[in-house]
Design a protein that fits this description.
heterodimer; A: 9 helices; 0% strand; B: mainly alpha; flat
């Protein structure tokens, strides 16, 4: 436990970065994923095709490859850095934002599939009633289907977000100073492998376990009574 | 609600025109984006033949890509076999009637599902290095396989439990009425049926394993993504190299995912056994 007290500041900082990565990517992924789900359900074949292709491509690509592509491809080769090149922290900022971009693109495909499966749980009569009232497709989706779909997929969406929390460790591949990077550094600098491993494993248990409980509780509370 | 067409009426003349307009706008936007990307790539000289020609030489494949493919496949094959064994033990253990077996299994499963695979890989890698468990040549492979086995073992344990739970209650009750013990019920009644219904999910889990071998990048494991970056740095063509690796990965994984879906449909049609678990609705969405 001496290791913990010695590195306490750094550990908390690393996990704070993990949390930030998770929150920003979660917001992006929820928005993009919902848009993709709407595209896959829309009456326009072209949009269906685009949504399906996106999901099939991204879901079958390793996250490491996506994040490396953001760094090597976008930033280093094409010069799209997403940060002010003049600021003193531009490299750190850029890596962080590229990691958020990669995590968002990757997670969105899973959010899309989850939302779509949620729409499938809404009884047929709901959409039919909406149509018979003259709702257009987008009104139907916005007012009738999505609110019910979201409430029925809170628990699986929670699992997606928990997976996202764990996936943020992969951002260490491009040098984002989050938990896994600090773990490697600490193992190399201290001889306390077991203590370091325990600290980081428990850190993630502490992050993900309450998330699971929260989403389980929300899912039950907000479930649509049928 | 399985078909999307329930969501909107059959388009009339005006809706057809509108849909065509939206399609047209989409095509234009896609073409514009593609054009912008290509222009940007060309502007940085990424589309010159010099950047792509190396992929036509046998040397590049023999020196870099094939060892990567071999590493990925070896790690994936070892992990899935070990994960199946571990998952079976943990899954059956978690369904046991003996509390002293059930509780530890439950804790182990929940723990390994909560910890990121990378954290487990780093830990295993340094642990093996510290105790000289494996020759240094196989150190990274051992780390990757350990991480993947622990995580996927826990997931497979949960899949197994879901498979057994999805069986009709009557199966277990009939076995009990015939006087079969718990072990006999599991072995000859519940598990064989559960395994059949699990097959599609297991195939999709293989995709997860294949993708996750790439996490080994960070503990210097020689797999496809790492070899892609090595090609990128030695030929100065990161973007083409990563694109080629991505195409290989996506093709393999897409084929496996489609196989899982087809398997599920086939099992759904057949009369025997319980209803199969959905191939794509994996218990751990998002990895």
């Amino acid at each position: 436990m001496e290791v913990f007290s010695e590195y306490r500041g750094q550990i908390l900082e690393a996990f704070w970065t993990t949390i930030q990565l998770t929150v920003f990517s979660a917001i992006g992924a929820l928005i993009l994923g919902t848009v993709l789900a709407a595209m896959r359900l829309a009456p326009v074949p072209m949009l269906n095709w685009l949504g399906t292709t996106y999901v099939n491509t991204v879901r079958n690509t390793p996250l490491t490859l996506i994040i490396l592509f953001c760094s090597f491809g976008l930033a280093q080769t094409l010069g799209i850095t997403m940060a002010d090149p003049k600021s003193p922290t531009s490299i750190v900022d850029s890596n962080f934002r590229l990691a958020v971009l990669g995590l968002t693109l990757y997670t969105a495909s899973f959010v899309c599939e989850t939302v779509r499966s949620g729409i499938n749980t809404v009884p047929l009569g709901q959409a039919e009633a909406a149509r018979s009232l003259g709702f257009t497709f987008s009104q139907n989706l916005r007012i009738i289907l999505l609110p019910q779909a979201f409430r029925s997929v809170i628990i699986p969406l929670g699992s997606v977000l928990i997976a996202l929390t764990k996936n943020t460790t992969i951002a260490s591949a491009i040098g984002v100073a989050e938990a896994a990077l600090l773990m490697k550094e600490m193992i190399e600098n201290t001889a306390a492998l077991l203590a370091v491993g325990t600290i980081f494993a428990l850190g993630f248990v502490v992050l993900t376990l309450p998330m699971g409980l929260l989403f389980g509780w929300l899912g039950k509370r907000l479930a649509v009574a049928r | 609600m399985s078909t999307a067409s329930i969501l909107f009426d059959a388009p009339g003349p005006r809706a057809r025109v509108r849909n065509r307009v939206i399609s047209g706008v989409t095509v234009i936007v896609v073409v514009l984006v593609a054009w912008a990307v290509i222009a940007k790539l060309a502007g940085k000289g990424q589309l010159t033949p010099a950047k792509w020609q190396p992929f036509l030489t046998a040397n590049l494949w023999k020196t870099y890509v094939l060892p990567g493919i071999q590493g990925t496949l070896t790690a994936a094959a070892l992990s899935i076999v070990l994960a199946l064994i571990l998952g079976f033990l943990l899954g059956v253990g978690r369904m046991s009637h003996i509390g002293a077996v059930r509780w530890p299994c439950a804790v182990i499963v929940e723990f390994f599902r909560a910890v990121p695979v990378l954290i487990m890989m780093i830990f295993a890698y340094f642990l093996y290095a510290l105790y000289d468990t494996f020759p240094s040549k196989h150190l990274a492979l051992a780390g990757v396989v350990t991480g993947l086995t622990l995580y996927n073992g826990a997931v497979i344990a949960e899949i197994l439990r879901a498979g057994v739970r999805a069986l009709p209650r009557g199966q277990g009750e009939a076995a009990a009425a015939l006087g079969l013990s718990w072990g006999q019920t599991m072995r000859s009644i519940l598990l064989p049926q559960a395994i059949t219904s699990m097959l599609p999910v297991l195939v999709s889990q293989l995709v997860v394993v294949l993708k996750d071998t790439a996490i080994g990048y960070q503990i210097t494991f020689v797999e496809m993504v790492r070899q892609g970056t090595v090609v990128g740095s030695s030929y100065g063509n990161y973007i083409p190299a990563l694109i080629v690796i991505a195409v290989l990965m996506i093709t393999a994984n897409f084929a496996l995912s489609s196989a899982a879906t087809r398997l599920e449909q086939r099992l759904r049609r057949s009369k025997r056994g319980g209803t199969p678990l959905e191939a794509q609705a994996a218990l751990e969405p998002g990895d």
